[in-house]
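Thread: "does anyone have the structure for this chain?"

Original post by V.I.:
We have the sequence but no experimental structure in hand. Need at least a predicted one for the grant figures.
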Amino acid sequence: GLIQSTVIVYNQMLKQGFGTIFNMEGFGSDNRKMKNIGLYGMSKKAVRYYTESFVLETKNSPVNICFLSPGMVITDLLLKEYRDNPEKNREAFRIFNILADEVETVTPWLAKRILQSSRHGQRVAWLTTGKIISRFLMSPFRKRDVISKHL
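Reply from O.Q.:
Generated one for you, tokens below.
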């Protein structure tokens, strides 16, 4: 789906002489692994590989090919393996409360950055390495609870 839709949209944008395509990354695109989401992670790694290759192939094009990385967003996909046994999954929930964000928090920020993007190969990322480090360093002092209302 992603490859075919990217090529179709790219060709139409090429005809009009401009445009930007964002392919969405997710957990696994950066080689991280986690049990129970192997197929999802593999597909997201493929998204990054394909998009990086397509960026190279379209280097001098008037159409920008970009990456969108929303970070850890609270969705049913994230929580479905953990809802049945909250006690057993306490450590996972602790990590989720440090790193995860609500869709309503992430989406406006991403939309604004998408509209501002203008560089071929640009990555728009919500949960950057710096933000991850900062959240873990601040976690003893700044308690976040973004998970409990979704359980």
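V.I.: this helps a lot. The mean pLDDT is 92.
O.Q.: and The chain has one domain: 2-150.
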